[in-house]
């Protein structure tokens, strides 16, 4: 659970920075206690808990901007930012939310990471607030705003960059063998066959970490059954694992493995130690399904490859499937949520509005992130890689749905056993039918 590389002093590849909270947040210690006072519009200083990594510079500037604004004066509120070290964040938030000193505003991962707080009545339901406020309603990409909620309700405002999962490919390998990025599953299978004949593993896969395996199932379930299949599971219906799309996705994964799409040793290759990126960059594998941080990982480890031969494309359409090829899976972003017991809800909501500002988006772009704001397109020319940044932004902007990574979206008690079952499927210790049966039993 570590980031992969850094460039210019900024940590990239926060796959497991983003995921940490979802797997460790427990319901213990939660109560209806909140920050001091009720939920009105009293004055005073509000506390905002934030994940204390390098990217926190954006939130620091946002707080300074708000505290000097007319909105702060009007609402008689100020924000105090409390930067919590990354490894300590989930536990400290959980403890604080069960005490009289809970934060008014707090950083989270959406989905499963806030489910216990929502069930305890500790979150402000922002659905109506967003719908009636043009700045919040029109300020963010709809798929990202929706991805952080629960049961169709909005509990968070996007406040960091987007990290969609993308199929990357080695341009040099494709050119040498006269290949083109596939847009359908049949084309992908044809590529597999041609690459294997050439002695090249079709896909790099860091199976030792398990979570890279999860990405294949996320996309296949979406492409086969549509985003509604996992949405049902995310909202707590374990019977949703019995949807035919889950079984078909598991069978498709088994076919890929049996067909040698990932090579023979993928279960002993890790992403976190640079193994899978190296296999890909050195031409031993032609493609790599990975989060958008793969670009930064390659830039840090294999800069020549990243600049000259790293290409990218969307996950293909599965013939006959219900899912739209424009749908995306991955890490939509991080979110600010509000404690239902905040002493100054008006000030807290006014602070959230800064996340939709052009100044906020510019700060994200300068740090190498892709904002989830609707105004970001024109700002991407200032990104470290404008072409890749624009591809990501357009990909998410056009997506009818952006499914949050399963291990972050499900209940924290389900996340670890779910990953265990995924690994058993990939290494051949369970059949697709056994995989589905095991998942249906997770509560």
From TrEMBL:
A Pfam family that the UniProt record links to this protein: SBP_bac_1
Database matches in Gene3D superfamilies: Periplasmic binding protein-like II
Name of the protein: Sugar-binding protein
Annotated organism of origin: Streptomyces shenzhenensis
Lineage: Bacteria, Bacillati, Actinomycetota, Actinomycetes, Kitasatosporales
